[in-house]
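Action item from last meeting closed. Structure (639 res):
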């Protein structure tokens, strides 16, 4: 292999390591590539960007200066160089950022960074305003470690400035240090307890769902017209174990009354051709066209669509596109970025594209443009993947299935139900490790486990899981959710809950490391039986457990969030693992743990069973959803 070819290989490997978050290894690969070909400008630039992300602005600046000397036309390198120089207090930072803008005028991060750096009076190290602005710019550019340095400097210089506390708290939270983030937010609230943004951020950093809801309610009371704060409250209410469907529905109607109803007058008649048999234009509206469970659930629908009958146009609120975004771009007939556009403009875009059916994905979750749908830009609108009803009078249908919403469902909603044979399509992880042997055979005890969002773990869940552990002597419970359990408050809350119910803390095992998906799946090889929380079941976590050979015990609830477990098990013929009440939940778990040979046999056959099931059959799924689209369209044509 030539030195150039070896450099290209090392550079590509560095890019991949950087993409997966292994920055130290990425930097090493870029250095190796430079060792092969010292004049490789892209490797110097990538090394500089990586060192900046690692919090080494001096080394970053040196690498980036070399990069732009070798090849001037590198706007991203000039941006990174400007940020590195700003952190070093180098007045040349402005010129670097202006170079980035001149090479790529559309580079929003460079404009924000230049504005921030310009506010640093002569880069005065004692200027709190500048450090606050620089931290915000670095957050926007994705340089979290650099932003953390700037935010800490701002708080140290001006401990009474709320903006500094807000920036630093967000960064600590993103790094997984929820306890310190919460303390920072509380310090800010001690300065001004009427700051809605800090209450909202505090809710994001807490680990107990009742405390989270209380913080969001306070934020909403202080800023009742803030859409994101109100949606955060709705999101959190879905986790409460004792909130009934009727009460939850009223909360959604209050959201609609405040935010959506004033917009209904903007809806205009649609001139779409009312031909029930013509090809249809489907619009997909989402902030999740990136590596995200919702994106993986839907991309197969677009990729496998009948292109003679259905065109697909994506409207994406995606500020940081990734490889999944590119899959959507490649699969769709059109991709429109909604970033920077107001809701009226996005609605106008959809109307101008003459979309027949607008498919709104997970509307009440972060950054989604649900109020676009309040303007009714398409004649037929369908909700998918939201936590509950959208609450919108303008949302015509809620896509679901007969297991999640049986005929006797007691859930309340504003939409009509549009049922398909199976609601959620899953995509088997390409990097999944092989299914390992049953852990109990080597350990001598059964390990239960959950990798669900820890906000789903409420007192009723702890009480039931304590009964399961009591029913299976010597058993353990392994808990994993990104790096949530690196926080002492999260661990302490859970250990206390089990101790109060007679379970020795040594039987609770935590994994608090943030890992890439392949290593996350490997953790499931340490679990014999997965326990599903309630009233908010797992979805992707349940699928991943089954894919790794781990049976999941679930409690079938009243709302769709509490029926995702049985909705995933039913297509596999495993409804017997879905309990109708808490007593049978304990019984199912105990019976599985009591017969290790049968449990091992089930583990061995689960992945083949899943692989041959409707859960992963994108072709069948696409045809079923298209049939539902056709039915909804014919209904509108008759109206």
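Sequence:
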């Amino acid at each position: 292999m030539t030195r150039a070819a070896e450099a290209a290989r090392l550079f590509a490997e560095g890019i991949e390591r950087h993409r997966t978050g292994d920055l130290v290894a990425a930097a090493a690969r870029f250095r190796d590539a430079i060792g092969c070909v010292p004049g490789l400008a892209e490797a110097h630039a990538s090394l500089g960007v990586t060192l900046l992300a690692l919090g080494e602005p001096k080394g970053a600046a040196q690498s980036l200066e070399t990069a732009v000397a070798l090849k001037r036309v590198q706007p991203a390198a000039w941006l990174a160089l400007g940020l590195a120089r700003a952190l070093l207090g180098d007045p040349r930072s402005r010129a670097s950022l202006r170079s980035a803008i001149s090479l790529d005028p559309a580079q929003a991060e460079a404009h924000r960074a230049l504005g921030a750096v310009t506010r640093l009076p002569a880069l005065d190290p004692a200027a709190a305003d500048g450090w606050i602005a620089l931290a915000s710019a670095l957050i926007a550019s994705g340089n979290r470690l650099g932003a953390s340095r700037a935010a800490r400097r701002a708080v140290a210089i001006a401990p009474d400035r709320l903006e500094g506390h807000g920036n630093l708290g967000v960064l600590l939270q993103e790094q997984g240090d929820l306890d310190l983030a919460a303390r920072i937010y509380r310090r800010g609230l001690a300065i001004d307890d009427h700051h809605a943004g800090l209450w909202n951020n505090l809710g994001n950093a807490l680990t107990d769902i009742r405390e989270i809801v209380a913080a969001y309610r306070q934020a909403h009371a202080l800023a009742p017209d803030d859409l994101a704060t109100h949606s955060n409250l709705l999101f959190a209410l879905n986790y409460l174990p004792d909130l009934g469907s009727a009460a939850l529905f009223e909360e959604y109607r209050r959201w609609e009354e405040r935010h959506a109803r004033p917009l209904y007058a903007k809806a205009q008649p649609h001139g779409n051709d009312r031909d029930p048999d013509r090809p249809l234009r489907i619009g997909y509206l989402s902030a999740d066209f990136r590596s995200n469970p919702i994106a993986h659930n839907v991309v197969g629908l677009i990729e496998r669509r009948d292109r003679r009958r259905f065109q697909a146009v994506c409207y994406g609120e995606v500020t940081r596109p990734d490889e999944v975004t590119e899959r959507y771009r490649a699969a769709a007939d059109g991709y429109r970025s909604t970033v920077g556009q107001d809701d009226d403009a996005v609605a106008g875009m959809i109307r101008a594209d003459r979309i027949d059916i607008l498919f709104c994905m997970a509307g009440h979750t972060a950054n989604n443009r649900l109020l676009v749908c309040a303007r009714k830009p398409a004649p037929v609108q369908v909700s998918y993947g939201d936590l509950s009803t959208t609450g919108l009078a303008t949302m015509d249908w809620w896509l679901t299935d007969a297991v999640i919403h049986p005929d006797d469902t007691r859930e309340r909603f504003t939409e009509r139900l549009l049922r398909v044979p199976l609601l959620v399509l899953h995509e088997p992880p390409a990097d999944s490790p092989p299914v390992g042997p049953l852990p109990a055979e080597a350990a001598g005890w059964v390990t239960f486990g959950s990798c669900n969002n820890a906000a789903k773990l409420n007192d009723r869940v702890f009480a039931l899981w304590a009964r399961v552990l009591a029913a299976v002597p010597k058993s353990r419970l392994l808990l994993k959710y990104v790096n949530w359990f690196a926080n002492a408050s999260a661990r302490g809350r859970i250990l206390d809950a089990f101790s109060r119910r007679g379970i020795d803390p040594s039987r609770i095992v935590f994994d608090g490391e943030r890992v890439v998906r392949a290593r996350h799946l490997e953790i499931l090889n340490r679990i014999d039986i997965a326990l599903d929380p309630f009233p908010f079941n797992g979805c992707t976590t349940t699928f991943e457990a089954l894919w790794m050979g781990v049976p999941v015990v679930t409690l079938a609830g009243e709302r769709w969030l509490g029926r995702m477990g049985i909705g995933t098990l039913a297509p596999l013929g495993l409804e017997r693992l879905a309990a109708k009440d808490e007593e049978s939940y304990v019984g199912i778990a105990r019976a599985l743990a009591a017969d290790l040979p049968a449990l091992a046999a089930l583990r061995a056959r689960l992945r083949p069973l899943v692989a041959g099931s409707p859960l992963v059959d994108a072709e069948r799924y696409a045809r079923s959803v298209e049939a539902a689209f056709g039915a909804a369209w014919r209904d509108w044509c008759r109206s």
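Note appended to the action item: The radius of gyration is 26 Å.
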